[in-house]
């Protein structure tokens, strides 16, 4: 289905997929579809025997590659000032950008002004906020009042109201250092951008960082900032996190507001954190999660946990499912080894490893492609008109043209299947487990040159980059990408990161982060740093 010359043949394939799935889930003609929010709440309930969180001991400090969790007490203790933290991060950001082209705009004066105000609040004895002084930078699709956004295009979009997630991070005391590279309209999973230039992997500059939140993962991996926000419509947080060796969380649909963010596909868009560790992701999620009436997809009745409260609880009794078939097909030996080793690590930590029933992931992936194409074209078709300013490259234009051929009835049928498929997934695949462990990408990290043209190889790689992540967007489930190993690069003296993903029930972010933190206490993959970060 990953065909960039869509026409009647591809539409016919989509019709077949919709018809087959409608028959499988028992959706009769004319029946009102189950709302996605209702299906998510139903699927959030464990079927049997979910292990309750237990109190745990605080994790010992890890040497070397420290995260914000370790450093956050320094500011409150006045061991360092917010302005010192900002200057250090800005210096690192400049070095990271020189090597990766990850920054669209470094907000030097704005960041220092934020830091100065924070120092003044601390001196006055005011509460600094839970993320006080945390150096962050964000994907260039989040609006900030009075400032432009680029959306990965060759021109700058007008400024709008500040995005809800940025307002919440501001209130938590975080520092906002830069707008970061993204692919055009967040429509490419590689990190390539024909109009604004390609972002490079901080581990090896000839290789892609993944996308579309390319800059977000690159600057975190390079050690420039402690965290960054990204968006995930088909894997755009998890793919670059896996390829750059950092931690990335796609929350449950509706948990984090997207108000003030550029949309690619409103039905599938998610915003979430990328950070050095699972516990830093927990801190960021705590600040940004919650209902927002300004986002039509925000779910009011959502359960909002304390995501950092039980990070150190034991894993005894947690059931991890291992999907086969679709998620096991075509895996490179290095990826297979990472999955096997990660499962063994969790088993030694007390988790129960189980196989799970198969699911029509290929068909779900096809439905997600259909919805992304249709919704993106509805939003940006005007950029294809003959009189439009040339702000997009050939690949993005080709993807937008695909959506023109999609019938409205077919799109609405794909929407109507979401609720029933989420319910079925919860009743079958997740019936006897709490989470799934699956690869995030099946192959070693590709080289940038492989995406230079719209040939068969680049189309195959783009399809592979999202094949294992995009079905989870359609289902609206939370997923956490973690670094789990490395793969040698032929002819180069470097090993590129290999990641995997944990997929949970709706609103199970606290459990996913707990599992991620336990894995990172038992391993050191998240502590590795590229030579760039050691300069």
TrEMBL record:
| InterPro entries linked | Amidase, Amidase_CS, Amidase_dom, AS_sf
Please list the residue ranges annotated as the Amidase domain: 84-513
Domain of life the protein comes from: Bacteria
In this chain, composition skew of type Low complexity spans 41-64
- An annotated Gene Ontology molecular function: catalytic activity
Where do the record's region annotations for Disordered lie? 41-65
This chain belongs to the protein called: Amidase domain-containing protein
Q: Which species does the entry assign this protein to?
A: Bordetella genomosp. 2
